[in-house]
């Protein structure tokens, strides 16, 4: 099964389009995964979903079982049935390919997830977000990390918000498919969990790079480079995209320069507010600066965003492992829904600071090197950049 096929299966809640044959089971069946990595690797980063049923049996145990001739017994002991299809997973798709072959020899219906978790990290899906008639909005999601990006198309112009470097050509192709050229490549802030694609989009299209004014204070090294046209924006500044207007909204907290963008009743919130949590405040200024950053985030959520109506739809920069999509399949929610759902939005400042600092997950893997890459101080080849950002994003304030 290819990663793309597995992702479509998870999204639909069934298993379909197996790599060996176009075979479909009844809707609602679980995706049965056998992960042959070590338990700590699995716990740190795994394939998840409402219909995903995972079993972890390290590769070394299958090697021992092969010698002893007990592969079938090992599978059965771990709840794997000969009557079900199982997809075997590892980091690169090599160990899992060997285990899948052992299982088939033992009479099991097993397939390998091609390229393993690194293949999973290349899965990128898009769904349309309901928006006003002036624009078409696509939400891109990377299920391996929960990263979200957006394409705004109006007439013959388009803008991409928070693009990922690994998928720069995808945004260009999707805009052109809709008869538009990318005019802007927008970052809401200096990202710490993935390598930004704004420069790559600009290289492909000549699009203008749009960054928050405060990004210059983060040591941006490419702002004055002749090959890039960089525009800095702050609260109230507007970007015209065809007949649509993106309006910048200052939203500091996650980072000092964090800037959201409003398109009519749609708010591209970046990493300020998610549909299941709020942002963590320590990635830009460290542990010492986190309390002050948390206070700034509290003002963003309880003053700036509080001025917006309940029916404004929040389109965040990430979603969590257990996040349920909205009825339309996107990871969005109205401010009214979030005000009812998230207790953090009604906390006073002191309680809020204690809350966001009290249960933060580990910082994103390689976040310091990712920041250096995104501000242009470090240059990486495409594959190096891809390897650097593998794993969960961990940009929310709470570990759960």
TrEMBL record:
Pfam families: Lactamase_B, Rhodanese
Highest taxon above the source species: Archaea
Record-linked CDD domains: POD-like_MBL-fold (cd07724)
InterPro entries xrefs: Metallo-B-lactamas, Mito_Persulfide_Diox, POD-like_MBL-fold, Rhodanese-like_dom, Rhodanese-like_dom_sf, RibonucZ/Hydroxyglut_hydro
Positions of the Rhodanese domain: 27-129
Transmembrane annotation, as ranges: none
GO biological process terms, semicolon-separated: glutathione metabolic process; hydrogen sulfide metabolic process
UniProt keyword annotations, A-Z: Hydrolase, Metal-binding
A molecular-function term among this protein's GO annotations: hydrolase activity
Protein name in the entry: Glyoxylase, beta-lactamase superfamily II
